[in-house]
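Q: What structure does this chain adopt?
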Amino acid sequence: MSALQQIEQTLERTSRRRRLDRALKGLWNGVFWGATLLLLSLIAFKLLPLPANTLVFAGTASLCIMLGGFVVGYWHKPSRSNTAQWIDERRHLKERLSTALELGEESRSGRWGQLVVEDAVHHAANLSPRELLPFHLTKLARWSVVILVLAAGLGFVPEYRSKAYLDAKNDEAIIKETGRILA
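A:
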């Protein structure tokens, strides 16, 4: 395997890791906003006389928001040059990888280009995508857990219905029963 191929292989692995990291961040953003929507709709259901389908709609919308966040995060694949610049900046390599990638594609770079590529290979051999991008929970993910716990606790609270609303529902039931008996 040539020196340039080793650099490209390292950049490809890191690019995949960056893409997955961005997708997971999008998923957690979606979980946060979906949980917020679910909590707000549950509060509205408990306080207002809304039909139970409201909760089904809110749950479906929350799931769509979560999946949408993942897809939006996964959508854009970073290029090799972009990933090389990102690694150079992150590890303070002073543009070694990005320069080596540019010079490796040129056939007329000469001995100086070979030295730059060899130096970049030396630094790329020590790179691990797992060390550069460790997976961790974002702040929104932590808040999502809190919101989901609040929603679960709110699920045990009985619905508030006013006396007038309960009387109207009771009258509807009596009218319906009387109509059934007459029929």
